[in-house]
Amino acid sequence: MKDIGTSPTAGKRYTVPAIKDPNTGIVVYGSHAIAKYLDKTYPDKLLIPRGAHVLVETFETPYINSHDAVLQAAHDKNSRDTE
């Protein structure tokens, strides 16, 4: 991940997926952020239909927050088990 210029997020972890646009050099990570970037930069080939971004954003944030909490709990449990 360092090779393409991404920075670690909270907890010093790297987020996937991540892309580096070879045409612009811009690094973007996170599925929805990548789709939004690509749709804005290359509007001839939309990944998310026009008007659907609001729907995606409505469900994405709660899902990611709950997913991160589950992963953190599993990581914490695993760390305790290996001590």
Main sheet: strands, sense, barrel? 2 strands, antiparallel
* Strands, total number: 2
Query: In sequence order, what are the helices and strands, one letter per element?
Result: EEHH
Strand content: 5-15%
Dominant shape: flat
Q: How would you classify the helix and strand content by structural class?
A: mainly alpha
Strand order of the largest sheet: 1-2
Mean pLDDT: 77
In whole angstroms, the N-to-C terminal distance is: 29 Å
Quickly count the helices: 2
**CA radius of gyration:** 16 Å
Would you identify the regions where 5 or more consecutive residues have pLDDT less than 50? none
What is the helix content?
Answer: 40-55%
Question: What does this 3D model show about the protein?
Answer:
The protein has 83 residues and is mostly helical. Helices cover 48% and strands 7% of the residues. It has two helices and two strands. Strands 1-2 form a two-stranded antiparallel ribbon. A hairpin with a 6-residue loop joins β1 and β2 (27-29). The mean pLDDT is 77.
Observed structural traits:
83 residues; mainly alpha; two-stranded antiparallel ribbon; 2 helices; 48% helix; flat
Summarize the topology.
Blueprint lengths: L17 E3 L6 E3 L1 H11 L11 H29 L2
Antiparallel strand pairs: 1-2
Q: Quick summary of this structure?
A:
This protein has 83 residues and is mostly helical. The chain is 48% helix and 7% strand. The longest helix has 29 residues.
